[in-house]
Amino acid sequence: LQHDLYPEISGRFSKLGWNEIEIEPDVWDWTIFDSDLTTRLEGDLQVMYKVYVKDLCPDWLYTTGGVPKVVETDANGLTTGFSPYYLSPNYNFYFKRMITKVREHVEQYPPEIRNKIIAVQACFGNTGDYINYKGTVPSQYCIKSAQFDSLFYDYSTYFYNEYKNTSPRITLISNPGNQGKDQALWLLQNCPGSWLKTGTLGKGY
Fold first, then answer.
1. How far apart, in Å, are the Cα atoms of 180 and each of 62, 100, 123, 167, 200?
2. CA 55, 130, 167, 3: dihedral to nearest 10 degrees?
3. Which of 33, 53, 74, 82 could serve as a FRET partner for 108 with CA atoms 20 to 30 Å apart?
4. What are phi and psi of 62, to 5 degrees?
5. What is the pLDDT of residues 28-67, one digit of tens each?
6. Secondary structure of 153-203 in the HEC alphabet?
């Protein structure tokens, strides 16, 4: 990116999968994370980052971590993807530990890197979107809308509390559902000073 040709660009987004940093339970490899993030600082730009989950969760979560792997299918019964079982207490523990570990790691960067990191997006689904399944899942793993909302509020609060005292401030970016008026209003009330993505407006624009 040549900044002199695109002066309206002031920053970049770094995005990686959880499986690229926690290679075994509580065993962390920051090589890819550090390289991806620092590369995006080139040209003296600022950077925001996010860690994808869902099908980018580490395999050990299912093999030894005790989290059920939920297969998603389409209307024809064909497999379209998979998710962790979001109501699993083990998933709740590992996911929150990952949020904390990433924040602690970023806080250890030298000032010339750390001071250019301005925001983190809270990712709960398969991209940076609202937490849910993408397709039909077995009945024992079905989660009601109200339960997904509760998870969204719980995880959003955890993210917010992890980053609210960072200095310089790393601002939380949240992405409520496209029709998520209640979620957006909740975020404004309970995560003051954070940023909201307006996905539908942005895509339309």
1. 30, 26, 16, 30, 11
2. 80
3. 53
4. -95, -35
5. 999 999 999 999 998 888 999 999 999 999 999 999 999 9
6. HHHHHHHHHHHCCCCCCCEEEECCCCCCHHHHHHHHHHCCCCEECCHHHHH
Residue 90, phi then psi, degrees to nearest 5: -65, -45
pTM: 0.93
- Give the whole-angstrom CA distance, residue 177 versus residue 183: 7
- Tokens representing residue 98 in the block: 């990952």
Q: Report the distance separating Cα 110 and Cα 167, nearest Å.
A: 13
Beta strands in 53-146 (DSSP E): 69-73, 79-84, 117-121
For 80-126, write each residue's pLDDT tens digit. Answer: 999 999 999 999 999 999 999 999 999 999 999 999 999 999 999 77
Query: Looking at residue 136, what is its pLDDT?
Result: 95
pLDDT digits over 186-195, tens only?
999 999 999 9
Q: How far apart are CA 106 and CA 172, in angstroms?
A: 14
Give yes or no for a contact between 72 and 83, defined as CB atoms under 8 angstroms apart. yes
| Amino acid at position 47, single letter | V
